[in-house]
TrEMBL record:
UniProt keyword Chaperone, yes or no: no
Domain Response regulatory: 4-118
Keyword Magnesium: no
Keywords: Phosphoprotein
Protein name: Response regulator receiver domain-containing protein
Residues that bear 4-aspartylphosphate: 53
Any matching Pfam family: Response_reg
Cited InterPro entries: Bact_response_regulator, CheY-like_superfamily, Sig_transdc_resp-reg_receiver
Biological process terms in GO annotation: phosphorelay signal transduction system
PROSITE patterns according to UniProt: RESPONSE_REGULATORY
Amino acid sequence: MKHKVLLADDNESELSALKELFEAEGYEVDTAENGLFAREMVKEKEYDLIVTDLVMPVSDGIQFLYSIGDRGRAIPVIVLTGYNRLDNMLNAYQMGAVDILYKPYDVSQLLELCAKVLKK
């Protein structure tokens, strides 16, 4: 059975590259260009893992994490961000993120982290 992953990032080229990478690893992947679209997708479908950017237009990663926090089923979330700020990190962890990777990140590190999270 394939793990279902939702990727949310406003950078179209990065989102496309991540989608290809995750699909090559055998994941079933959906994508969203912002937190609002991602929130709607979570309402419609069950995911095993979410990988989201923190800073996005319309609805950012923190707002997205907050909106899915009361869904009853905890979905592990890995946050990707280019902003190494303590308040962002604390907010992400308080909203339920299992880990944060700072851009530019090592792709193999991201895949290893995803595999580790999904094993739990």
